[in-house]
Design goal:
The protein is α/β, with parallel strands linked by helices. The chain is built from 16 helices and 14 strands. It folds into 3 domains: about 200 residues, NAD(P)-binding Rossmann-like Domain (Rossmann fold); about 90 residues, Rossmann fold (3-Layer(aba) Sandwich), CATH 3.40.50; about 140 residues, 3-Layer(aba) Sandwich (Rossmann fold).
Length: about 450
């Protein structure tokens, strides 16, 4: 079986690498020639644990190839995955122009049966548009060819994407024909040796499942952040509250951690897109609208704590930031709370120095040299008035109190992920503020 992956971003590259690892002949396509040339030389466009080794291994083994020629590759494949970007439009809806462009190119060039699978996160009804676009192009050519369309949303966690793909907790596939189901089952069978975890649905349901899953997780995060903020007011400890409710089997403990807001490529975009889909269909997602409002407000929670601590004036102060990416084990800065905090600190007249194990080059690409970048976590705090912890990288979990006290000008720490113990910090002479902790 031969597979074509269109788009070599986070989803497309992981998908292609993992399929090729199972012996499937994969070609990845992208319009960005520099990216394709880099991949052929082993240069990864993203950081993801284990991905570089997997790509290089299968490229050398000639199971994984890279090209910019979609039109010339269409008829080489039995299955074509569309994994192109669906960025949010100004109104919050998903921009499907890249998805439709892929479908149009397929329709213009196919000369045999092919299964076209949408891998990108797309609103309900997108597969219908893909089918219509391909058929329109075939009609223009006066050609009658059978083809199928399917939906196969991804559920990869950044930082653990390779493991998630190789050993998925479930694979959701929306199909409309027995032939499409058989092809998809054959593709994923190598990943199901020990436990069959494929869920087949209709196409519309598969498209909705992805949005509903991310919206639920985002809801849990914003709910806990709301609870944390109330805990501070009434004198409760959100960590104890989390343990208490997380032990309830009906609730569970995952995604109940309070913090400085969620970011990344999925939750913000997908929540907005689902709200917009509802509006377009005459329905209001009141819960999700609140989820979004809470998250946007939460991204400024540490800034507000700092302003309060310094009596309303941060001008001339020096701030250090530990962690820039929206979560550990990735360099993804999309919708990262760090970007919001940096902007607010700079506008307040602060000097900012930051350290992140992986994401500093990506941060510099986005915002340039408006802040300073440190070589390690301790040099970042030299002479600073405050330290913000934004990303819970492992190397930040254990710190030297002596080092912090000797290097910092004022020893106040604002912990946006609640990874430190307030009592221990206080006992060691540091002033500590977490989220939902008194």
């Amino acid at each position: 079986m031969k597979v074509l992956i269109v788009g070599t971003g986070y989803v497309g590259l992981v998908t292609g690498a993992c399929f090729s690892e199972m012996g499937i002949d994969v070609r990845c396509i992208d319009v960005n020639k520099d990216k394709i040339d880099g991949l052929k030389k082993g240069v990864m466009p993203i950081y993801e644990k284990g991905l570089e080794d997997l790509v290089n291994k299968n490229f050398k083994g000639k199971r994984l190839g890279f090209s910019t020629d979609l039109a010339g590759s269409v008829n080489l494949a039995d299955v074509i995955f569309s994994a192109v970007g669906t960025p949010p439009d100004e109104d919050g809806s998903a921009d499907l122009s890249y998805v439709i462009d892929v479908a149009r190119t397929i329709g213009q060039n196919m000369n045999k049966y092919v299964l076209v699978v949408t891998k990108s996160t797309v609103p309900v009804g997108t597969a219908d548009k893909v089918r219509q676009t391909i058929q329109e192009e075939l009609d223009k050519r006066g050609v009658r060819l059978a083809f199928d369309v399917a939906s196969n949303p991804e559920f990869l966690k950044e930082g653990n994407a390779v493991n998630d793909f190789m050993s998925p907790d479930r694979v959701v596939i929306g199909v409309g024909s027995a032939k499409a189901r058989k092809l998809m089952e054959r593709l994923y069978k190598p990943f199901m040796v020990n436990n069959y975890r494929i869920i087949f649905t209709d196409i519309h349901s598969a498209e909705m499942i992805k949005y509903a899953a991310n919206a639920m997780l985002a809801t849990r995060i914003s709910f806990m952040n709301d609870i944390a903020n109330l805990c501070e007011i009434v004198g409760a400890d959100v960590n104890m509250v989390r343990q208490g409710i997380g032990s309830d089997a009906r609730i569970g403990s995952k995604f109940l951690y309070s913090g400085c807001g969620y970011g990344g490529s999925c939750f913000p975009k997908d929540v907005k897109a689902l709200i917009k889909t509802a509006q377009q269909n005459g329905y209001e997602m009141e819960v999700l609208e609140a989820v979004e409002r809470v998250n946007e407000k939460q991204k400024s929670v540490l800034f507000r704590k700092a302003v309060a601590y310094f009596g309303g004036d941060l001008k001339g102060k020096k701030a250090a930031i530990w962690g820039l990416s929206f979560k550990p084990e990735t360099d993804d800065m999309r919708e990262a709370p760090a970007l919001v905090l940096i902007d607010m600190l700079l506008k307040a007249g602060c000097q900012v120095v930051a350290y992140d194990p992986i994401a500093m080059p990506e941060t510099k690409r986005r915002i340039g040299d408006v802040i300073k970048y440190a070589e390690d976590k301790y040099s970042a705090v030299d002479g600073v008035d405050m330290l913000f912890l934004l990303t819970e990288w492992k190397e930040f979990r254990v710190v030297s109190y002596t080092e912090l006290k000797s290097r910092m000008g004022r020893t106040v720490i604002f912990d946006g992920r609640n990874i430190y113990d307030k009592e221990e910090m206080t006992e060691n002479g540091l002033t500590y503020y977490g989220i939902g902790i008194n």
